[in-house]
Structure formats: structure tokens, C-alpha cells
Write a structure and sequence with these properties.
heterotrimer, A mainly alpha (355), B mainly alpha (310), C alpha/beta (517), B: 310 residues, ABC transporter involved in vitamin B12 uptake, BtuC, 14 helices, C: alpha/beta, 3 domains, seven-stranded mixed sheet
């Protein structure tokens, strides 16, 4: 007698929504076990990691602040993932976007024009798009796998940032730290809620979610990309341009990541350093998957992911655990999601051996 | 540029290429069975930290290698459960493994970040190491370097001269046909995946115990990904893996080239560090553009989930 | 031919039952095969024949029932065990590995042994003995379909089977090659080998088989001696009623040329593909032209050149309604009035995981479903519902997923979707492959109606019976070239069968790799 997976005739609607919740539950459970193994009280660990960050309104505001770049990147990435375009280089596109927008800010550091900020956002988007255009071009023209190329570009982008903040863009009055000057007030995103750090980027993110929803569900181009992602031959049969799907998929991800990058720089960080992003580009992939590649799902899963980031910081402070514990939770969440998804298409059955 | 310099360049190239050979050969076997495991970076990282931790606490680098291998097997087991048993998308599962592995290694490795490990003396091969120029470069290396050469021969022999290797290639070509004939496709794929994980773990162990005997978060620095690209560059043929690995190895020590050559070029360190990554992109482009070659050499079922139908 | 009925049956199965979530594939099946008997398993697509064979070969475990091998009960847990008992199977869709050689492919099916040179010798011996010429060193992808089947058969014969199962073996052969296969099978039967012959082709079963068990909807509906039956009586056992008759009718008058292919030559970049050479063809309004041919002779490449999935350097090589379209993508060709029903339903003609409504958009979006880049889902849904009604598609509604439909119903849906776009030119590949008799008949009648209303129709098929039933004119494709055209009523299966080997009058002399059986 053993357990076997039996294919369902139709994918289960319920499980499609239940699966992410199951994955989150499993992650909580594993968290408790993890704390136990590390010699901490599981209840204490759970409280510090998951509940502490959101225990007051400032905490909740921080949650939204951290979720913003995740939301932006994830919605851009989901457009591509739906079309089977694997943009793994969002982290690099985020950095280049930050550089482009930041460059504008530093170039016009004395300006007081209201056009500076929008200009920076656009520059950020363009920077991200340009960096994403490279793997898109290499895939459509040379058939080079975009996973590997976009990833290599992440390492190169990190090196570019490193070079700039150690060299040409280093703040002369910065005590030789690898960072640029602080951005001027004109170049800083306005705060939405007094007393918090939540800024206008959140509005951009929500706008992106809405635009993403319209694109994927109502537009013909979104439909074409969905077809291309699910059945490549059907897309070709229909005459949909596979190349266009790749370009749109990569550029959407790049633009959003670029905006996320500049919004970090002209928001909470205030300057360009070597630590603009604690891996948002990669975390955003998890956000996209857990959010089922839908804008509403992404909204909630980016809040969850932000919580995981903040939990790590809390754990470092109060539990004496390295903050990289966040990454452990993030990875576990993705694994659990991939595992739980099996129940969408399969049922578990007890199979008896025939006599 | 004296012969001593050439010798040391060769030496450094071989060292830099060794983890790539080991990891890439492991991944090659996995891919030959039709499974695309993108988790090499995460597996290497966990292998590296496990090896370092064990080598440090036992004082025995060989135990470190074993620990690295074991960690690699465990990590790839996670991937196997996800992609083979639970039939999740292979690309997503591999990415999950990489993200999880890198994060896990950073977490586990925190206490070891400023710890030193004694370097291991290289093993000198008696007669061969006396050959001028080549001797010191090739035959006064760490044991794992020689292991990488043996591994190359072993993998090639296994794939092309044994029945088990033929079966593995058949599974990669058409799992449905192999299943119809009666081969346990999932079982064979698991074996290939675990082998790949073991190799990635050993590759990671080499990094942290022999290459630079220390642990730092992110020390694998993309070598897992480069190894994956190497498999494509080698068009899934073992011999080419070695050539490619040493080419990349050469890229990685570009800094040494520049400084040692005496030329007065003031290139920022970051530019030199970027060379391996840019080279990877270039190499991928060159190989991929010939769709026919890719079609003929890549395992036909690579990346496709196998669904046992009954 | 005579079998000693007092002897022990080689194989007896009793009460085999196999249930899947959506269908009962085998519902209490009994079957007996004697030594030296050629036993047909007859049934239309979806009757449960393949499932039953997989049970016998150990690929699937039955839910209930038992198997008796030479009188003794056995359990067959996997194909290796089946082979050890002495059961060999030649699959309908070959289980061969393209990038490996013949001898390597054979070695994979034989336990233990890995002495390739010795194996090659044995392969040559068997191939000579049974008239199945094949070169052990060649790579499978370079072999024609007929040659591949020989490899499959030799692979089985090398293990000295006592029972040989063949699943729809003649769907890939020319009529002449079918004759040769039958000789081989008769020789095996005379040596005492039992043969299970799965097919839905009544005339072949009459010619070859001693006994026939008829399956319908997973149950046995009759056991008969084919020599004493007529196709009509066997058909009635197979589908429960008389075979529907298709009235061909007269083709219309000379309509305008809707599709013209002029000197089309296209090299393929697929290492396993076929180059097209100097193809010339015309299809006029109000006629059905059929292209016959054994699989692997350029059909795929020709279809892609016509549909637009493969762009052509020469714009004039393909012309639709007088317009050169060689450089047009499928969308632009559809705008000129072309519609296309491809061979692969799931994955090409329809997206498996999308609903029927969403699948309508795949090709029919021009019918008022778009509005400045946005989709009017209401229009699409209505179109889908109309299609379902008009074409008798049995499904769970316009919202059900494409993959939840049976083969026949999905095919009706796709054909319906294309026809509802009122095409001026309709191209179909294998229109009734894997489709049950009822749906087949429906589709063929629909095509004839369409022809009568003035559409130009091109059908590419490997099923000669179907082509003879509906086509006004026939051509044959072989090795990437096209034969002269023949009016259907002026030719016959024998002649077309010969042409399918590439041997029509004034054909190019064969040279280079052959892709024809």
C-alpha cells in the first residue's frame, strides 16, 4: 500500500487559491521548527519574527515601504513569467535604473524644478529597460538563454555600481565611504503619510498593479503573451510574434525594476551606495510566484515578503540570529509553494497492492 | 614574462577552472537525463559552508570535502522532490534552490566569517612535477584538481561506454519511450540529480577549503551559474567542459595577468572582475546562435516535466 | 491458420478493468489468444484497445481482473517482466530514440547484454530471416517511418517472443509495405508465435486475422471470425450502428484559384526534417484537393510554408487569392481568408489549459472581438457557444478547458472555429486522426458542404480511405516533392500506394537519403 499522485481531470479551482496559503502555513511551521533547532523558544521566535514588525502603525507603514519595490518588480516580472520569459536579472535592472535616475539627480543637484523627480523616475525606468534589453536582444537575435544572460548582467551591474561609488561618483565630503552625495530635497520622493517613510512610490506601485491587471486580462497583447507562455506552437500557429512577447516581457520587468531602484535611492536611502537592494530583484520572483502572477496576489505576497525582511532585522536585534534568516524563510516559502502546487493538478490516492 | 610567470598563470588558471569542471560535469550528467537543475549556485554555496564548518571543527579538509558532498546531495534532493516527485516546473524549482541555498549558506556561515582555516599543502605527483613550466603548473596541485581530471574521464566513459550511461541518455532523449520500454525514468533522473548535487557540493568545498580557505557570504560569486553556462558552451560533451572551464578560469584571474604582465594599464578592479561574466554572455551567444547544433546536442526532453501516466 | 482449440491458450485475460478519473477505459474485458493465432482487437479510437495492450505489456496495472499465461495465472508488473514471459510489443508511436543508432536502440530493450558488435550480427540475422532490411549502425532519425517500424519489430523478435502485440501498425505504411508486413506476420504465426493485432481497419483485419475481438467503450461487444464477416457486420459490432455513408457529390465548376504554390523550394534547418523541392499546386474554389503521403516526407514543412509559420524567401512561392504571401505571417494570411486546422490539437490548434472561449481568440479574433487592443470577452464567448452548438461539441460549456474535451470533440471545436470564420481557403492536416467514427463522419460531411458552398479546401492526410472519401483530386508527396494530380475517381488505392513510394511517372530518380518506406 502506498500513496500515489493521480492526475485530476480538471485543475482544482480551490487548490489554486489554497495552495499559497498552504505554503505560507508550512513556512510558519518550518519557522517554528527552525527556531527550536537554533535553541530559541518557538513561540518567542514566531512573535519576534512575524508579529513584532507590525505591532504598531509605524511598523505597518514600514511594511508598505518595504513592499513597494517588491510590488513594482514583481508585477513587471509576472508579465514576463506568464509568457515563459524568465527575467532573472531584475536585481541588475534595479541597480542600473537607480544609477540612471541617480545620475540625473546628481547632475542637477541644485535644481528646484518640479520636473526633476518625474524625470528621475522616467530615467530609472529607461535605465532598467536598457539593461533588460540586452538579454531580450540576445534571446531574440541569437537564441541565447535569457536566464543565464540576465543573471550575468546582475553581477556586472553590481560591479558597475561598486566602481562608481568607489570612484567617479564618490562624495568628496563623504569621509571616503563608497557612497554618493545625498540627494537634494527636490530629488526626494514626497512622503505620503506624515511620521512615516511611506512615499509616493507606493502610488506608482499600485498604479502598476492596476495597469498590469488590465494588460494581462483585457488586452490582446496580454493574451498573446499568455498563449506564448503556455503553448509555444499555438502561438506560432496563431501568428503571434514570439519575439514581441520576449521584448515586452523583458522590458516590462526592466522598467518596473528600474523604477523600484530609483525609488529606493530617492526614498529611504537618499543616495547611491553599494547596498541599494537587499536582493529585492530575487525576492520579487518569489513574490510573483506566490502571488500566482496576478496583481492582487502580488499585492498581498509583497506585504508578506516585506514582513519576512523586517522579521530578519528583528531576529538580529532580539534573537541574536543573523538577518540572513529572512533569505532562509523566503527560499522555504518558494519551495513550499512549488510543492503545494502539485495539488492543483493531482490528488493523493491510497493504492492497494493487488493480491 | 619569464617562464615562472607563465607557470604561475597556468597554475592559477587550472585552480580557478577546477570547481567549474566539477560542477559542470555534475550538471552535465543531470541534464543528459533531461533534467535542468538551475540550483547549482545555491548547492555550491551550501556545500562550501558545510565543508568549511566541518573542516574547521575537525581540522580535516578531507572530511570537509565529504561534508560538502553530503550537503550537495541533500540540497539536490530537495530539488528532486520538487521537480521529479511533485512535478513542479524545473526552472522554478532550480531557481528556488539557488535562492534558498545562497540564503541558507549566508545564515549558517555567519559565525565562520572571520575564522581562518589552515591552507592545505598541495599534492605533488612524483616524476611529472619535474617537467619544466608544465610540472609546477599542472602536477603540484591540490588533490581535487587531479580528481577533476579523473572525473572527466569517468563521466565520459560512463555516458558513452556503459549501458547505464546509454539508458541515462535515452531517458534524456525521450522519457516517454524509456518508460514504455520499462525503465524507471524518475528513479534514473533522481540518481542523475543527486550526482549533480554531489559534484556541486564538492565544487563548493573546493572553494572554501582549498581555493581561498575562508568563508564569506557570496564567495561563490556566480560560479554555479557560470558552470551552468559551461554545459551549454560544451554542447553537452564532457571533453569540451574542460576546455571551457580553463578558459573561464583564465578570465577569472585576469587581474593577475594584467598586474604580472607589467603593462601600465590602469583598469579599475571592477572591470577586471566583470570579465568572466561578460565572457559567459559572449560564449552563450556564440554557441546558441546555431540552433541546429543546439537541437542536435541538447537532450531533447531537457526541462520538460515527466508525468508517469499510470 | 487453423488453431488447435483443445490446446492451452497462450494468453487468456479475464475481467480486466481499468478506470481513470474521467473514463472507464477497460470494463471487464475477456480475451483469449491461441498459439499461432493472429488475433485482431478491433475498435474505433477511444474504445480501450491501447489501454488493454498496455495492461498486457505491464506498462499499466489493471484495477481488477487476471491474466493467464499458458494456463498459469501471472502478474505483469512492468514491461521487463512481460518481455521475460515472452511478450513483445510494437507501439503505435514508436518508443525509439532518435539520436541513437539502431543497435543502441535495440540494446536498450534487451536486458544485460551490451556487446554491440555481437548484437549487430544478431540484428542482421533476424532482419534477413524475416524480410525486414535495416542497417544496425544507422541513426534512427535518418530512417524512414517504415524502417523505424522494422527496428521496433526486430527489437521484439530478438527476444524470441511467444506473443507479439502490434498497435495500429499500418497507419504509417504504404499499401505495398502493408503487404510485406503481413507476410512477416504470417511467417511468425506459422512458427507458433501468437499475434495480437490492434486496428480499426476492417479490410486489413479481414485479410490477415484468424479471429477478432471487438471493443466498444471499454467493453467486448463481440468475437468473430473475420473471414466469415463483412465489413458492414464488423462495423456494426464496432460502433453499434451502421457506418455512416458519405455522399461525395459532384465537384463544382472551375472556380477561381484560391491557393497557388509555385516552384516552392525550401531547405529545412531542422536536422531531422525534409527539404521541399519544386512544389507546384493549385487549389480552386469549390474543390477539395488531397495530399497523400507517408509521414515524414515533407508534409510538416509544406504545411508550415502554407500556413505562414515558416516564412519563405520567395514571396511568390505561395499565393492566396492571387496575392503573394510567402513573407506573410499567419495573421496576415488569415486576413486574406485562409483558415488552418493543424494536426496537433492540443498545444497547437488549441491551448490545453485555456477555456474554449479563450481558444476562440486564437484565430477568430478578427470577428469583432477586438476593440483598440482590448478584448471583448462577451463577443468571444458568444462565438464559442455558437461553435459548440453548431458543431455538436460535447463539453462542459464555453468555459471548460480545452484539454478536458475528448479528441473528437476538440477536433470538432477547432474545425468549427475555423469554418465559422467563413474562409475562402481551408487547409486541414489529418482532420480525423484519433477521432471517433461519429465525429469523423460529421467532419467529413461538413467539409463536403463547405466545398459545395464554394470554399477551396486542401487536406493533407496519411489516411488513404479518408482522402478517397472526400477529395476531388489527389496528389502525393514523397521526399519533399509533389506528384502530378489525379482526379480521385480515375485512380485507386493501389496506384496511389505506389506513388507514395515516390514512383510516379517522371519522378526524380531517387538519390541521397530516402524518407519513404
Amino acid at each position: 500500500m502506498w500513496l500515489k499522485f493521480e492526475q485530476r481531470p480538471e485543475p482544482s479551482r480551490t487548490m489554486t487559491y489554497l495552495s499559497p496559503l498552504l505554503a505560507v502555513g508550512l513556512m510558519f511551521l518550518s519557522g517554528l521548527i527552525l527556531f527550536l533547532v537554533l535553541g530559541k523558544s518557538p513561540v518567542e521566535g514566531f512573535k519576534v519574527f512575524f508579529l513584532n514588525p507590525i505591532k504598531d502603525s509605524y511598523g505597518i507603514a514600514e511594511l508598505f515601504l518595504k513592499a513597494t519595490p517588491l510590488m513594482l518588480c514583481a508585477v513587471g516580472l509576472s508579465v514576463g513569467f506568464k509568457a515563459n520569459v524568465w527575467n532573472i536579472g531584475a536585481e541588475g535592472q534595479l541597480l542600473i535604473g537607480a544609477l540612471m535616475g541617480g545620475w540625473l539627480a546628481l547632475r542637477f543637484e541644485t535644481s528646484t524644478s518640479p520636473f526633476l523627480l518625474p524625470g528621475m523616475i522616467v530615467a530609472g525606468a529607461l535605465g532598467g529597460m536598457a539593461w533588460a534589453a540586452i538579454p531580450a536582444f540576445l534571446r531574440t537575435r541569437f537564441n541565447a538563454n535569457e536566464i543565464l544572460t540576465s543573471l550575468m548582467l546582475v553581477y556586472i551591474a553590481e560591479l558597475v555600481v561598486s566602481w562608481l561609488v568607489h570612484g567617479p561618483w564618490k562624495d568628496p565630503d563623504g569621509f571616503n565611504f563608497p557612497q554618493t552625495k545625498l540627494l537634494s530635497a527636490t530629488a526626494t520622493l514626497p512622503i505620503l503619510l506624515a511620521g512615516t517613510r511611506v512615499n509616493a512610490a507606493l502610488l506608482i506601485a499600485i498604479g502598476a498593479l492596476v495597469a498590469g491587471w488590465i494588460f494581462m486580462n483585457k488586452s490582446f497583447m496580454g493574451y498573446q503573451m499568455k498563449v506564448a507562455g503556455q503553448a509555444e506552437h499555438a502561438g506560432r500557429y496563431a501568428g503571434f510574434s514570439a519575439k514581441r512577447s520576449v521584448w515586452i516581457g523583458m522590458l516590462a520587468g526592466g522598467a518596473m525594476a528600474g523604477i523600484a531602484g530609483i525609488s529606493e535611492v530617492s526614498g529611504p536611502i537618499g543616495q547611491i551606495t553599494e547596498h541599494i537592494s537587499p536582493g529585492y530583484g530575487f525576492a520579487a520572483m518569489i513574490v510573483a510566484f506566490v502571488g500566482r502572477l496576478t496583481p492582487i496576489g502580488i499585492f498581498f505576497s509583497s506585504l508578506l515578503m516585506a514582513l519576512l525582511y523586517m522579521g530578519g532585522e528583528q531576529a538580529q536585534q532580539y534573537l541574536n540570529l543573523p538577518s540572513s534568516i529572512s533569505k532562509v524563510f523566503q527560499g522555504m516559502l518558494l519551495f513550499f509553494l512549488l510543492g503545494s502546487d502539485v495539488f492543483i493538478n493531482f490528488r493523493l490516492r491510497l493504492v492497494r497492492r493487488r493480491k | 614574462m619569464g617562464t615562472a610567470f607563465i607557470s604561475s598563470i597556468l597554475f592559477a588558471t587550472v585552480v580557478a577552472g577546477t570547481p567549474l569542471i566539477i560542477v559542470a560535469l555534475g550538471e552535465l550528467v543531470t541534464e543528459k537525463a533531461g533534467v535542468l537543475n538551475l540550483g547549482a549556485e545555491g548547492t555550491m554555496s551550501v556545500g562550501a559552508v558545510a565543508a568549511f564548518a566541518v573542516a574547521h571543527s575537525t581540522g580535516n579538509p578531507f572530511l570537509g570535502i565529504l561534508a560538502g558532498m553530503g550537503a550537495g546531495i541533500l540540497m539536490s534532493l530537495l530539488f528532486g522532490i520538487s521537480a521529479l516527485t511533485l512535478m513542479a516546473n524545473q526552472v522554478a524549482s532550480g531557481l528556488a534552490l539557488s535562492i534558498f541555498g545562497v540564503g541558507l549558506s549566508a545564515f549558517i556561515g555567519k559565525p565562520y566569517e572571520s575564522v581562518a582555516l589552515a591552507s592545505v599543502t598541495p599534492i605533488s605527483i612524483p616524476l611529472l612535477s619535474q617537467i619544466p613550466v608544465l610540472g609546477p603548473a599542472l602536477f603540484q596541485q591540490q588533490g581535487l584538481v587531479y580528481f577533476s581530471w579523473v572525473l572527466l574521464v569517468a563521466v565520459a566513459w560512463f555516458l558513452y561506454r556503459t549501458k547505464a550511461g546509454l539508458v541515462l541518455r535515452a531517458v534524456g532523449e525521450s522519457p516517454v519511450s524509456a518508460h514504455s520500454i520499462g525503465y524507471g525514468v524518475v528513479r534514473i533522473r533522481y540518481q542523475a540529480v543527486l550526482f549533480g548535487g554531489a559534484m556541486a557540493g564538492i565544487g563548493g568545498a573546493f572553494m572554501s577549503v582549498f581555493y581561498t580557505p575562508m568563508w564569506v557570504e557570496g564567495m561563490v560569486a556566480g560560479r554555479g551559474w557560470i558552470a551552468l553556462s559551461l554545459v551549454v558552451f560544451a554542447t553537452w560533451r564532457p571533453a569540451r567542459v574542460m576546455i571551457g572551464a580553463y578558459l573561464f578560469g583564465g578570465c577569472m584571474i585576469a587581474q593577475m595577468f594584467v598586474q604580472g604582465s607589467g603593462a601600465r594599464i590602469n583598469i579599475p578592479a571592477q572591470f577586471l572582475s566583470a570579465i568572466p561574466y561578460a565572457a559567459t554572455v559572449l560564449v552563450l551567444v556564440l554557441i546558441s546562435r546555431n540552433r541546429s547544433t543546439i537541437r542536435l546536442n541538447s537532450p531533447a526532453s531537457l526541462g520538460q516535466t515527466f508525468l508517469p501516466d499510470a | 491458420m487453423p488453431t488447435d482449440t483443445s490446446a492451452t491458450p497462450r494468453l487468456a485475460i479475464k475481467g480486466i478493468r481499468k478506470v481513470y478519473p474521467s473514463v472507464i477505459a477497460n470494463d471487464g474485458i475477456d480475451l483469449t489468444v491461441m498459439p499461432g493465432e493472429i488475433h485482431a482487437v478491433l475498435g474505433e479510437n477511444g474504445a480501450g484497445k491501447s489501454t488493454l495492450m498496455k495492461v498486457i505489456y505491464g506498462v499499466i496495472r489493471p484495477d481488477e481482473g487476471e491474466l493467464l499465461w499458458e494456463g498459469k495465472p501471472v502478474i505483469i508488473p512492468n514491461p521487463a517482466q512481460a518481455r521475460e514471459l515472452g511478450i513483445g510489443m510494437v507501439f503505435q508511436h514508436f518508443s525509439l530514440f532518435e539520436t541513437l543508432s539502431v543497435v543502441q536502440n535495440v540494446a536498450l530493450a534487451i536486458p544485460g547484454e551490451f556487446d554491440l558488435p555481437a548484437l549487430s550480427k544478431r540484428i542482421e540475422e533476424v532482419s534477413n530471416r524475416y524480410g525486414l532490411p535495416v542497417d544496425p549502425r544507422r541513426l534512427v532519425h535518418a530512417l524512414s517511418v517504415g524502417e523505424r517500424q522494422r527496428v521496433e519489430i526486430i527489437r521484439c523478435l530478438l527476444q524470441n517472443p511467444r506473443l507479439l502485440i502490434l498497435d495500429e501498425p499500418t497507419s504509417v505504411l504504404t499499401p505495398q509495405a502493408v503487404r510485406k508486413l503481413f507476410e512477416t506476420l504470417r511467417q511468425l504465426a506459422s512458427e507458433g508465435v501468437s499475434i495480437l493485432y490492434i486496428s480499426h481497419k476492417l479490410d486489413e483485419i479481414q485479410e490477415l486475422c484468424h479471429t477478432a475481438t471487438v471493443l466498444r467503450n471499454g467493453k467486448v461487444t463481440g468475437i468473430c471470425t473475420p473471414a466469415q464477416e463483412t465489413p458492414k457486420t464488423m462495423a456494426r459490432m464496432m460502433i453499434g450502428e451502421d457506418l455512416p455513408v458519405c455522399h461525395h457529390g459532384e465537384p463544382g465548376n472551375e472556380g477561381e484559384v484560391r491557393l497557388r504554390i509555385e516552384a516552392l523550394s525550401q531547405a529545412t534547418d531542422d536536422p531531422f526534417g525534409t527539404h521541399l523541392r519544386n512544389i507546384n499546386l493549385e487549389v480552386r474554389a469549390g474543390e477539395i484537393v488531397g495530399i497523400a503521403g507517408v509521414s515524414g516526407n515533407g508534409q510538416q514543412e509544406l504545411l508550415r510554408a502554407i500556413s505562414g509559420e515558416e516564412p519563405l524567401a520567395d514571396h511568390r512561392a505561395v499565393q492566396m487569392c492571387g496575392v503573394p504571401v510567402g513573407h506573410f505571417n499567419p495573421g496576415r494570411r488569415r486576413a486574406l481568408g485562409m483558415c488552418f486546422v493543424p494536426e496537433e490539437r492540443l498545444g497547437r490548434g488549441a491551448v490545453p489549459r485555456l477555456s474554449l472561449t479563450e481558444n476562440i481568440l486564437l484565430t477568430a479574433y478578427r470577428k469583432g472581438m477586438l476593440f483598440s487592443g482590448l478584448i471583448r470577452w462577451g463577443v468571444a464567448k458568444k462565438f464559442a457557444e455558437d461553435c459548440i452548438t453548431r458543431f455538436d461539441v460535447k463539453c462542459g460549456g464555453a468555459g471548460s478547458e480545452a484539454k478536458s474535451l475528448s479528441g473528437g470533440n476538440l477536433q470538432k471545436f477547432i474545425v468549427g472555429r475555423e469554418i465559422m470564420q467563413e474562409p475562402r481557403l481551408l487547409v486541414l492536416a489529418q482532420p480525423t486522426w484519433g477521432v471517433d467514427v461519429g465525429a469523423s463522419s460529421f467532419i467529413r460531411r461538413t467539409l463536403l458542404d463547405l466545398r459545395n458552398s464554394g470554399t477551396a479546401i486542401l487536406v493533407i492526410s496519411e489516411e488513404l480511405e479518408e482522402l478517397f472519401e472526400i477529395c476531388d483530386r489527389l496528389v502525393v508527396i514523397a521526399k519533399g516533392t509533389l506528384s502530378p494530380s489525379k482526379v480521385t475517381s480515375e485512380t485507386g488505392v493501389e496506384e496511389i500506394g505506389i506513388w507514395m513510394s515516390g514512383m510516379w511517372p517522371d519522378a526524380e530518380k531517387p538519390g541521397g537519403t530516402s524518407h519513404v518506406a
